[in-house]
Amino acid sequence: MLQNIHRVHLMGIGGAGMSALALLLKSQGLEVSGCDLKPSHYDLGSITCEIPHSPSHIDTHKPDALILSSAVHRDNPEVLSASERGIPVFSRAQALSFLFNRSCGIGIAGAHGKTTTTSMAGLIFLKAGLSPTVYVGANVPDIGSNSVSGSGPHFIAELDESDGSFELFTPDIAVITNADWDHVDHYPAREDVIKAFTRFADGRKEGGTLILCAEDEGSSRVFELCGKSRGGILRYGWGKSWDWGAYDLTRNHGGGISCTVSHLGREEGRLTLKVSGEHNVLNALAAIAAAEICGINFATSAEILRGFHGSERRMQVKGTVSGVLVMDDYAHHPSEIRATLAAVRGIYPERRIVVVYQPHRFTRTAMFAGKIAEALSAADKAYILPVYSAGEEERPHSSSQEVIRQGCGRIEALSIGGAGGTLEKELEPGDLLLTMGAGDVYRLGENFLAENQNV
């Protein structure tokens, strides 16, 4: 479908997924333009991000196709202007799948962990000299971007399940890190999530391989339901009983984690990661399994992952000021909050952890308010910001106040405007400030560092 398209215009180009797609389309020789409501902090190279959306962009750039971020609605005046002119309109996932499905695709999906797993796999293939194309939903410092356009046959992509669009992809290797219940606006019941991931698993190419986390209940249900005849299935988890297993875990001083890895019950060797958290050991196993299928042995993968520094906004150290260590994490689901706090506590057991959490979407907050409150209780002090709506309308029991109510006095409300003063009074030398959420909460940590730099 791209053969007759020479110029594309991307609405919402500033986001993680759209900026990565823009760079990949540019590398294919297309003329790329784009717009957004605010400037992007992702590197777009020579592509200009015009602010804001406007129907005039259609006349200016005369695109052959318009590609939309999921945040852009079809009734947007710019979209309507393109439709009136007969210009085809595609979603981000549709455009990405055009590129992915004609390659040897490694599609990595899951409610949690897919960004880190994709980053790990991408780095392994790059360093091993396979020249893959890589698409990630975050900047990866070790790669230097959120996308890479390679000359090799492999296309490694993080695939988004939030709106079901990952079912457009037909991977040669399908990875499911977990099938947890999230995005309740699209999946009203837990079983809807399981069915969607099962369809994704069954949508891989004939003879393709499915890689599943054996430690996740949802992934185990997918294993039970998916069609076994379409190709091989590998499972990874703790111990030696899985296709790929990890045991003898050791938390390293100052951060990081080590373990022994087995393949089909045979010891392969020791894996040492700079990134912390048991969940990252599982992510690494998934990446190693995918690499092994493509001819990269364990020793090579382990040596490459030894130097992996993580993805942006995944337990990212932002800096230290006045004895306060500032970290940031994308965690916004209760499972992610628990995993992040457990990992941070393991790295810095001596520090008092002060969390500022920003709920993401009203639907998620309403469904998981009690579990969010429970997860935040692992912090020494927890503050909660107003919900980052992501375009949703507020509904009953969907506000931060509901989380506070269910937190039974353990969580305090915080406003964006008053955060600076509150944190200034709260934080003391030796504390750790952890900002968490999928919105713009990370700016609070950055502001705290900037405002106290010369104090």
Explain what you see:
The chain is an alpha/beta fold and 455 residues long. The chain folds into 3 domains: 7-91, Rossmann fold (3-Layer(aba) Sandwich), CATH 3.40.50.720; 101-305, 3-Layer(aba) Sandwich (UDP-N-acetylmuramoyl-L-alanine:D-glutamate ligase), CATH 3.40.1190; 316-451, Mur ligase, C-terminal domain (Protein-Tyrosine Phosphatase, Chain A, Alpha-Beta Complex), CATH 3.90.190.20. The protein has 14 helices and 21 strands. The strands form 3 sheets. The chain has a 10-stranded mixed β-sheet, sandwiched between helices. The chain has a 6-stranded mixed β-sheet with strand order 16-17-21-18-19-20, with helices on both faces. It has a 5-stranded parallel β-sheet with strand order 3-2-1-4-5. Helix 6 (190-202) links the parallel strand 10 (173-176) and strand 11 (209-213). Helix 5 (114-127) packs across helix 8 (278-293), helix 5 (114-127) crosses helix 9 (298-305) and helix 11 (362-376) runs parallel beside helix 12. The termini are far apart. The relative contact order is 0.09.
